[in-house]
Fold each of these.
Amino acid sequence: MIGFIVKISNKIAEVVILIPINKPILGNEEKEAVLRVLESGVLTNASAEGGPFVRTFEKELASFMGAKDAIVVNSGTAALQVSLLAMNIKPGDEVVVPSFTFAATAGAVLLIGAKPVFVDIDLNTYNIDPEAFRKAITNKTKAVIPVDLYGLPAKIDEIREIAERQGIVVIEDACQAQGASYKGRMAGTLGDVGCLSFYPGKVMTTGEGGAIITNDQELADRLRMIRTHGQIKGYDSKLLGGNFRMPEMEAAIGIVQLKKLPKFLEARAKNARILMEHLNKAPLILPQVPENIVHNWYLFTVRFTSEKIRDSVREKLLKEGIGATVYYPTPVHKLPYYTSLKYGNIQLPNTEMASKTVLSLPVNPLVEIKDLEKMSKIIFDVLS
Ligand SMILES: Cc1ncc(COP(=O)(O)O)c(C=O)c1O
């Protein structure tokens, strides 16, 4: 049981979360995998190709993704940063991003000295609005980062068509969407490169970790070098890079988690289906999944008619131990650091509306049918 001090509306309350929104699911196989690395005495490898566990994880991940290559790194943020560097995005270049996302999407752009340009979302999917992207393009625009928010792939065909016409690189932020798909292709393979995160709350974890997915062999070679100081064998830097390497222990956990992932995703899909049926007649907006798209149900996010109603539903769920969470209460362009950069006055009405009215409900593999029934009953009680 986890005790949390949370701010609900304007009140501070302590709540015990019995059903968290997400949590890592780890067993003996992960423990044994870590021990195998410790016994080998090889904890990392600073060459471009990485150590044996990294290489195996990459091979199995590429095969899971249906892609030619996967390059693992030490976080999803690193995956974005390394991708931007490998794509030659430079200080002064503009990169179009949604503001309705985790701060890492825009932060990675700033970290390499480029300028994030925030655009609005489409309220049906909570993902970047392709038309808003088109309108934001200037002669400085070099990349776009569509985010597959909550685990639902963005409108990639429209985005790619606009980007390709203008020579703009598409870096897919699939950090929340591993296992989702779009017209039969995996989220993470939909852009020129795709980024995944293995943070503990994600659909699978390595502790901290991330990956870059690509079908371009020459780009894969560059990505591998950038993750380790631009080196190939060691002490031979040919490109500017950094230490973005995934340690061997994380890769060993990743190999085990990846094998379990299909079962995790199945359980999420089942829980989402049940919750969808329970809430079908509730006065709220359910997640919309367009045809030909498979959601990975990292987050099951509903929308209410007002902030007040959303907050009262959340308060009641939290009091009952259900970790209903708002992703994201503050759009990135309104976070303190971004307002200090004078982003605060941009008008993004759909983003603002979503941040005030959305609520994510737990459907992770540990959630049971009785929990879903309890959640639904609380929601109906508050709304009636
Ligand atoms: C949309 C999005 N982008 C990027 C990241 C960054 O991933 P990480 O936390 O592994 O650095 C996350 C994860 O939290 C995310 O949700």
Amino acid sequence: MALFARPRNAVALDIGSSHVKLLELESDRAGRRRLKHFGVAPVPPEAIVDGAFMNTSAVVATIRELLARHRVKTRDCIVGVAGNSVIIKRISLPVMTQEELEESITWEAEQYIPFDVNDVNIDAHILKGQADEAGQMEVLLVAARKELINEYQSLVLEAGLRPVVIDVAAFALENQYALNYDVPREPTALVNVGASTVNLNVLRNGVSAFTRDIAMGGRAYTEEIQRVMNVSYEEAEAFKVGGGEKDRQAVVPEEVERVLSTVSDTIASEIHRSLDFFLSTSGGAPLTKVALSGGAASTPGLRSAMQRLCGCTVEIVDPFRKIQVDERAFNPRFLQDAAPQAAVVVGLGLRRPDDK
Ligand SMILES: Nc1ncnc2c1ncn2[C@@H]1O[C@H](COP(=O)(O)OP(=O)(O)OP(=O)(O)O)[C@@H](O)[C@H]1O
Ligand SMILES: [Mg+2]
């Protein structure tokens, strides 16, 4: 969503409930993207809950620490938002110009959003300008609660950055995918599983046809391991990503494995339900591919559970696939491990002055 003037060079921030991801890209003369900065830092588990900032100073400190560690000089910043405070809809309106649309959208939007139009920032973009038989055109409507936008703005300002673009995670995901892969005409689902939110974006005929955020994610595994094994959040997290206390390894893995498989089934069925609902109500071809990303995409069992339910290929996305990386500056192992988690921030980092 273009709420501010567009930057020439900007640092992208994806502020997740478990990790802040920071990235800056450069373009060479041939227009190829090169990785300039990339960093990931954990956020304390209680700092962001249900999409709300509970401990702003901890988040600000995390961002500041990332900027310092990576010696980021750029101050203009592109930040991503997601969750229930953002509404994205494709709507039909009588044919008009972008200028006319911008003038009338607040009034038009009223019937499509569950909030008071005075409480939201609205952005509208013409998708298909040609009129259909009824003289209608297709418009993408994005509405984000002002309260949420203000919170992000002041957070980023406090971290010493200038917020210039606020973008929606689901669209960032799409921009990332379009850079790295050939977008097929057949339905493809982009599924980003973070710690507390799943961002969905179904592409059909090469464009976004359906987006949705589901309040669910990798944290569910950690909490269930915590409960079953009676351990701390940190210990549970360590068990999940394959660590854990050595002397307990003989007994532990089975219980952990059980949790991983049960929670994977739950998350996968919730995602499948959303995708299936969209596909069955909108008609057309079935899904041909799921492109999975987000930190939780690496959880053993999630990919196969998705594959079983969706009945199509499920691939883990590599957001650095078409980005030039200097191996002396970036540890390849670190990049490989963090790649699924970087899908949204890469999409944010691709935002340029004249795209929308
Ligand atoms: N190797 C791994 N195996 C399993 N889970 C992992 C792995 N690496 C990261 N995760 C999980 O991925 C999640 C973090 O991913 P990500 O950074 O995409 O989330 P986030 O953006 O912080 O969360 P959200 O956007 O939902 O608020 C955490 O739940 C973390 O435990
Ligand atoms: Mg996230």
